[in-house]
Design a protein that fits this description.
805 residues, alpha/beta, 8-stranded parallel β-sheet, 35 helices
């Protein structure tokens, strides 16, 4: 018996399928001709039934799908028509007629953008298809209306600050009419709000290409450029807008804001005043005017503008923040604190307000919620959040790692490196090394009290020294002294960061020394533009700036041991003795006030701490109060700082069992008189985590011993550095328990304290700490080492300076 063919059944099935499909197609062809005849005879319903039968036999039958779509449309059933047309196009994408008919249905459904795209698809297949040409022409009015409607919807959403939905509306408007300038302008404005600055600029440039004199687009373009810190370009954009419409309050206000950002405060105020002349209730201009007056330190004038803005728009968190900041600048922290709190209630996410609130509370020694606030700020820093001022953070944290995190986040947000650095590695060949010192503090200020002598002691045969001043001209004796100490002194208050950076580049400065870092009135935007090939952080800011455009930080082995260097972006240059320069010409008033004149009791031990009040922390105050309880008749002598401090600290003392009157507060006096009154104190108690810096060297110069506890970070180790350099290492303790025990011993052992005072008196005039010329040779050796590496084409690297005897 033969074996059957295994494939014969499958082949038979395939033949049967082909026959069936041929028969279906044959029947469908006959039925389609019938459908066409019925359609031509005006019998649309019957024709549609024929198409349905065809599609039951051949579901992807192009002609039946196309014809049924036309028939459904004629019956007004547009959704069904569109479904049939879409299936027809899918079955035969190269049919221009099907594409055009589908577009027509989309037009009837009021979907003009898709209808236009369908016409374009049809015309791409057959450019001469008359129906598609006429249909596309007829869509223009629909597209214009659709674009205007979507643009209007977006504008409403934008006004409600619903930016993502607004952007979607503007995109739909532009899909209908790609060159609609109003939609391009609105999309650019929304993109700016969303932080998409490059996209915003592209949208606004397109709007201006379509409509060159479009003032709103010029205004919005200026705002985007301002966000990108491209201030010169932003200013040009606002100038162009105002040339077209000189009375535009918005453009005047915006140009004023850019001028303020550039440091042109007088011109900025003029713009704000002009804007307010045109619109007296213009809240934005009122706020900007107040902020600018604050920058000019005209705080009393700033308040009425801010108050007027709040009267017009009560309770706005950002304006409450500004008002609080002005009050804080006036030293009215007791009034600033509730304003900061109100701002936070309205917007709990305002991190800067939280930090400013904590700082004001620290200045006022108002420690309510102190732990919660400090823990919250530290947590923000550890998450890498921006908005925490590193200068404020120095008094909160003693973690070098957290201090670096804080500085890095601040730099990313506030002072990012310029994408176009001015110095690009070229090497100058000057006969002398050109050093520029940048500072806001060339006046009766702690920085100048320390460094003025260095400027006078520089070796002028080897160094050409320039002073760059961007702080106020106080016209005091210290300002006059500093000005003549430099070979070149330039007041750049009215110049922008960009202009100052270009000045340094034009002067071919070899080494730019930033004396302020992130302290008050800093201008870190100057060094962010890399105007000098070597950039150095020194003296004013005791920590890392977290910026790669700062090459070196000058320190010593006490404030910055090698194990801490990983937490500094800068390369560390270690000086011998102490990193802190001191002026051997400090003047002490010859007359010492009496105890009674200073408000002190006639007898009893006088502990003092003349630090800024914000450096006093609750844990430290606990130690001080225990000392007062243990040492009978003793008092604690503090700076008054502001009017809130005495009441707050006396209340804290009473809660710890110390009579309030045992806290004595010293008012502000001239520097020479302040040094003279140190003679009335017995021992200066240092602060932690932020030590006494100039305060400690002032005390030592005046003959007053300083007791310190060595902290964990640069700012908490400065007094230890000073005490080693003055020959009193025995006053450096390793813990608060040791600090407290030594303070008690010295308060009870008059002979031991007298011996320390005698040692200080003996060492003062010949110790390294107060030898300004010796220090000058050391820091010059540091500059020379930096300069030589640069001349050899080598990158910055840490090194130590050998002592010069």
């Amino acid at each position: 018996m033969s074996r059957p063919d295994a494939g014969s059944g499958a082949e038979s099935a395939r033949r049967g399928w082909r026959v069936s499909r041929w028969l279906s197609a044959w029947r469908a062809s006959i039925e389609y001709r019938r459908a066409v005849a019925l359609q031509r005879a005006g019998k649309g319903d019957e024709a549609l039934h024929c198409c349905e039968r065809i599609l039951s036999w051949v579901p992807d039958h192009f002609e039946a799908l196309h014809l049924s779509g036309v028939l459904e449309a004629r019956r007004g059933r547009f959704d069904d028509a569109l479904a049939r047309m879409a299936a027809a196009v899918a079955s035969n994408p190269r049919s221009a007629e099907a594409q055009a008919n589908r577009a027509n249905v989309l037009k009837l459904l009021r979907r003009p953008v898709e209808a236009r795209d369908g016409c374009d698809a049809a015309l791409a297949i057959n450019p001469d298809l008359g129906f598609a040409l006429s249909l596309r022409e007829s869509l223009k009015k629909d597209l214009d209306g659709h674009a205007a409607m979507r643009n209007g919807e977006g504008a409403v959403l934008m006004a409600a600050k619903e930016f993502e939905p607004a952007l979607a509306c503007f995109d739909l408007a532009l899909a209908a009419k790609p060159d609609l300038p109003e939609a391009l302008n609105n999309r650019g404005a929304v993109q700016r709000e969303l932080g998409h600055f490059d996209e915003a600029l592209a949208s606004l440039d397109r709007a201006l290409a379509v409509k060159p004199g479009f003032v709103d687009a010029l205004n919005n373009r200026g705002l985007v450029l301002q966000e990108q810190k491209r201030f010169d370009e932003a200013l040009a954009s606002f100038d162009q807008a105002l040339a077209l419409k000189p009375d535009t309050a918005e453009a005047l206000n915006n140009r004023g804001a850019v001028r303020r950002d550039m440091g042109h405060f007088a011109q900025a105020l003029d713009d704000f005043d002009r804007a307010l002349f045109r619109r007296p209730d213009f809240v934005g201009a009122l706020i900007n005017r107040g902020v600018t007056l604050r920058h000019l330190k005209r705080y009393a004038e700033a308040l009425p503008s801010i108050d007027r803005a709040l009267a017009l728009e009560p309770g706005v968190a950002a304006v409450l923040h500004i008002r609080a900041a002005v009050l804080a600048s006036l030293g009215r922290h007791d009034e600033a604190i509730p304003e900061y709190e109100r701002a936070l209630e309205r917007d709990p996410g305002m991190r800067r307000v939280k930090v400013a609130l904590l700082h004001s509370k620290m200045f006022a020694c108002d420690w309510r919620a102190y732990r919660e606030l400090t823990e919250s700020v530290i947590a923000d820093v550890r998450l890498g959040e921006p908005g925490v001022n590193p200068f404020t953070f120095l008094a909160i944290s003693d973690s070098p790692r957290d201090l670096q995190r804080c500085a890095q986040a601040w730099v990313r947000d506030e002072f990012p490196p310029s994408p176009s650095p001015l110095s690009t590695g070229e090497r100058y060949r000057h006969p002398r090394i050109r050093v520029a010192y940048l500072s806001a503090d060339y006046r009766d200020h702690a920085t100048s009290h320390l460094i003025a002598g260095l400027f006078e002691c520089h070796d002028r045969e080897r160094f050409e020294v320039t002073g760059i001043s961007f702080g106020p001209d106080a016209r005091d004796p210290m300002r006059a002294r500093v000005e003549v100490a430099f070979e070149r002194f330039v007041d750049v208050r009215q110049r922008s960061d960009e202009e100052v950076a270009k000045l340094l580049r034009d002067l071919e400065i070899d080494i730019a020394v930033d004396l302020g870092g992130f302290t008050t009135d800093c201008r870190s935007g100057i060094v962010a533009r890399r105007p000098a090939p070597i950039q150095v952080s020194y003296l004013g800011f005791p920590g890392t700036m977290g910026a790669d455009y700062i090459d070196y930080l000058i320190a010593d082995a006490f404030v910055l041991p090698p194990e801490d260097e990983p937490w500094f972006n800068e390369k560390v240059v270690t000086l011998p003795d102490s990193y802190q320069v001191n002026d051997a010409k400090r003047q002490i008033a010859p007359r010492t006030p009496s105890r009674a004149q200073a408000g002190l009791p006639e007898s009893g031990f006088v502990f003092c701490s003349f630090n800024n009040n914000y450096k006093i922390t609750p844990p430290l105050f606990e130690v001080w109060m225990r000392l007062l309880r243990e040492v009978d008749g003793s008092v604690l002598w503090l700076l008054e700082g502001n009017k809130s401090v005495p009441g707050n600290l006396r209340r804290e003392a009473q809660s710890r069992g110390v009579a309030p009157e045992r806290l004595v507060f010293a008012p502000k006096v001239g520097h020479a008189d302040h040094l003279a009154r140190h003679r009335l104190a017995d021992l200066l108690l240092d602060s932690l985590p932020y030590n006494a810096h100039t305060t400690a060297s002032d005390a030592l110069w005046a003959g007053l011993p300083v007791l310190t506890c060595r902290g964990n970070a640069f700012a908490g180790r400065v007094a230890a550095s000073l005490l080693h350099a003055v020959g009193l290492p025995e006053l450096v303790t390793a813990s608060t328990a040791e600090y407290e025990a030594l303070a008690q011993r010295l308060a009870r052992d008059a002979e031991a304290l007298a011996a320390i005072k005698a040692k200080l008196a003996q060492h003062r005039d010949r110790c390294p700490l107060f030898d300004t010329r010796r220090f000058a040779r050391h820091i010059e050796a540091a500059y020379l080492g930096m300069w030589e590496r640069w001349q050899r084409g080598e990158p910055p690297s840490a090194f130590s300076v050998a002592p010069i005897d």
